[in-house]
Design a protein that fits this description.
This protein has 254 residues and is α/β, with parallel strands linked by helices. The chain has 7 helices and 12 strands. Helix content is 40%, strand content 22%.
Length: 254
């Protein structure tokens, strides 16, 4: 490739994902696993499969990724989560772009095919899921957000045709654990901005979220998994506002 590619993966106890993930990254010139002191075999497997492993205590995703970007050898970077895979057609498209002498865009959106508990989710508000994951690190960095961090750039952004595979949450416990964590973070952010939660937020907003996802965004076409996705989206909103309400009444959340 005319432009060499570095891959950055942020990990913490991801041993079940490492072999299939790293096998799908065999076209990269450098693979760096930035680990938050895993207690399983994540880093062992990564090193056995040729990845470079770095360690950093985790504070939040944007800070972790921005620090990791500074450690890479190459300008062009592909960020991949442990539960994602690069199929052959996406691999070919990325290689084709990096084979160009001059690349007009400095970042690229990649659409995702999502699987929840081994079920493909085609609608339910997930049909337009896309992320900026391929970019030139000289022109891009993550914004300083505690959750849902995004790449910031003033340069042109392209869109890849092929999709990234995302195998999110194989079991309910993993799903709910992260669900709790993200709802707490979101509640804290809203609370610190002075926003309040009352009866309207606790009752009406979660109900509308289910209606929006299940009817307006066609979750009904996803069958049983559509009911799960849309219900959990509504419950997430309920938990955020419930936690805000408790903080308004003096309860502290970690």
């Amino acid at each position: 490739m005319s432009h060499k590619l570095s891959v950055l993966i942020i990990t913490k106890n991801e041993e079940e994902h490492m072999k299939p993930l790293l096998s799908s990254l065999n076209f990269a010139d450098e693979i760096v696993v930035l680990d938050s002191y895993s207690t399983d075999k994540t880093t062992e497997i990564a090193e056995e499969m040729g990845a470079k492993v770095l360690f950093r205590k985790f504070d939040y995703h944007a800070a972790q990724k921005n620090w990791g970007l500074e450690q890479l050898e190459n300008d062009w970077v592909l960020i991949v989560d442990a539960d994602e895979r690069i199929p052959e057609n996406l691999k070919s498209e990325i290689k084709s772009i990096l084979n160009q002498n001059e690349i007009n865009e400095k970042a690229f959106w990649i659409k995702r095919i999502n699987y929840l508990m081994d079920c493909k989710v085609q609608y339910s508000g997930w049909q337009n899921d896309k992320v900026i994951r391929l970019f030139d690190r000289n022109f891009c960095k993550y914004n300083d957000k505690l959750v849902h961090e995004e790449i910031e750039t003033r340069e042109n952004i392209g869109v890849l045709k092929q999709k990234l595979e995302h195998y999110t949450y194989k079991d309910f416990k993993t799903y709910f654990d992260k669900f709790q964590k993200y709802s707490t973070q979101k509640a804290l952010i809203k609370f610190k901005k002075g926003k309040k939660a009352g009866l309207f937020e606790l009752l009406i907003k979660p109900g509308f979220k289910f209606f929006q996802r299940y009817i307006l965004k066609l979750g009904i076409l996803d069958g049983k998994i559509g009911v799960v996705v849309c219900s959990m989206a509504a419950f997430h909103d309920f938990l955020v506002y419930l936690k805000m309400w408790r903080m308004q009444n003096g309860e502290k959340l970690d």
